Amino acid sequence: MSTIALAVHGGAGTIAPELMTPAREKAYRAALDQALRQGHAVLKAGGIALDAVEAAVRVLEDSPHFNAGRGAVFNADGQHEMDASLMSGDDLRAGAVASVQNVKNPISLARRVMDHSSHVLLSGNGAFEFAHEQKVELEDDQYFFDEFRYQQWKETVGTDTYQLDHSDKERKFGTVGAVALDVHGTLAAATSTGGMTNKKWQRIGDSPIIGAGTYANNASCAVSCTGHGESFIRAVAAHDVHALMLYKGLSLAEAVRVVVHEKLPPLDGDGGLIAVDREGNIVLDFNCSGMYRGQVGNDGEFHTAIFR
Fold it and tell me: Per 3-state DSSP, what percentage of the chain is helix, strand, and coil (rounded to 5)?
C-alpha cells in the first residue's frame, strides 16, 4: 500500500492554557479536524498532494478562528492584506501572492499563479488584477470583518506598535498551513496568513516566500512555517530543514529540531513548523508554549492538539 500523510497548522505562540476555554478549544480543534478531513479525502482518492494542501488550507482560510482569509487581521489602514504560497516537490513549481485584498482564498490565487502564469510571486494591485483575470472568488470588506480582530487593531491604531496575532493575553502567530505526501510519492506544502495587526508599508512576512515559510522537495520533505516572519526569512527556515536532510543526512525529526530549537531562537524566531518526509514521517515542532496542529497518516487516524 502506498503511503499517504497530511499535517496542518493554525499558528503557534505563547498560548496560555488557563485562557483556553473548552468552547474555544473545541472550535479550534473542529476547524483543524475539518481541514485534515478535506485534505485527506483528496489523498485517499488518489489525488495529488498539491490539491490536498490547497483544500486543507482553504478550510482554515474560511474559518474566522485563524489569521488567514476570513480571519485576517487589520493593517494600519484598517484593511486586510493577505499572503500565501504553495509548492510541489516533484518539479519544484511554486506560486505565491503577497499583500492581496478581497480575495476569499489567497491560497487558491497562489495556485493560479503557479498554474496559469510564468511567475512565482505576485503582489498588491498586480496580484488583484491577476485575480480578476482568473475569476477567483472575491469578497467585500464586510466578509473579512471580525469584531475581535477589530478590537485588536483599535488597541494599536495610530501608534507605531504592531502585533502578532493573539487572543486575549496570548501571543499567537496565526498563520495557517498544510504539508502532504500522496500515493505517487509527491510532496507539497502550502501556507497562508493575514500578517501582523497594524502592519505598515505593505509589510510581507515569510509565508509567501518560497524557502522561508514554505518549501517542498521530493528529495527530502515538505515544510510550512508559522512564527515571527522576519526571523524565519533570515533563517530561510523551511529550506534549511530540506538542506540539513539532503546535505547532512539528518532525519526529518532531527533537521526540524535543529532549525526550530537551535537556529531560530537566536534570531528571536518564536514559532514552529510542520513537516512530512518522503517516507510519510510527520513532525510538528515548536519552541513556544503551543501550536494549533493536526495530522493523519496511513492508519487514517485523525489527531489534533494545541499544547505539548
Answer: 35, 25, 35
pTM above 0.70, yes or no: yes
**Domains annotated on the chain, with CATH:** 5-295 (3.60.20.30)
Give the Cα separation of 62 and 102 in Å (integer): 13
pLDDT tens, 218-240?
999 999 999 999 999 999 999 99
pLDDT value for 260: 98
Inter-residue contact 163 to 76 (CB < 8 Å)? no
pLDDT of residue 168 exceeding 50: no
Q: Are the CB atoms for 215 and 223 separated by under 8 Å?
A: yes
Residue 175 falls in the annotated catalytic set: yes
Backbone phi and psi for residue 174, each to the nearest 5 degrees, phi listed first: -90, 15
Q: Which of 175, 214, 226, 304 is catalytic?
A: 175
Grid cell for residue 139: 469578497
* Alpha carbon 35 to chain centroid, angstroms: 12
Whether the CB-CB separation of 67 and 73 falls below 8 Å is answered with yes
